Amino acid sequence: MASAPDRSGVHEPPGPAATPVRRRGRALEQAIFQAVFDQLLEVGYAGLTMDGVAAAAGTGKAPLYRRWPDKEALLSDALRDRLPDADDVEIVGDLRRDLLAVLRFMFSACTVAGDPALQLAKAEADATHDVVRARVSVPARRMMLDVLRAGEARGEVRPGAATPLVARVGIAVVVYQNLTGGDGLDDAFIEQVVDEVLLPLVRNPDGPAPGQGG
């Protein structure tokens, strides 16, 4: 039987190079935003660079610099994208259900803000506080006040209870629960805040009973 030829000195031609995945639009944007959070966990905000994000996202620097002048602007947009959108909150004209909807929006935002990567960013990047305020805090207070005023117009909320200060109460309870560790911050807790704090505080005893929708 013939022995196999000695090929020790023969160099095999390289195989075909892997074709890079070309992403555009939303797919590329999502990859970049995810790379931002991955890099925050790996190197922290101080070590976050546009070069590092581009490499982690598997893209070049040019797509980043065409849209974001620096890492602070990029982080701000990545955070906006991850936080819930107040425009998605469904207000239906029922006091209890609308109070729940606003506080569930806050609950969702607290869940995002608790991400370890964002905790690192918040400690070092002032822009994150501005984004959270504009994207979550201000819209939540506005929605809550609108819900109370609409409830007052329907007779569900006692006259004079729809004030900016009262509108902050439920939101403050949710934020405090989140800041003190978040234990028990779930949908059952949100319902407790509405049923045991907000409704007793604002309900009009002479008006129609609030709906019991969940």
UniProtKB/TrEMBL annotation:
GO molecular function, one term: DNA-binding transcription factor activity
The protein's name in its UniProt record: TetR family transcriptional regulator
Pfam families reported in the protein's UniProt record: TetR_C_11, TetR_N
Disordered: region residues: 1-23
Classification via InterPro entries: Homeodomain-like_sf (IPR009057), HTH-type_TetR-like_transc_reg (IPR050109), HTH_TetR (IPR001647), Tet_transcr_reg_TetR-rel_C_sf (IPR036271), TetR_C (IPR011075)
HTH tetR-type domain span: 26-86
Keywords of this entry: DNA-binding, Transcription, Transcription regulation
Organism: Embleya scabrispora
Coiled-coil stretches noted in the UniProt entry, renumbered to this chain: none
Keyword Transcription regulation: yes
Annotated region of DNA binding: 49-68
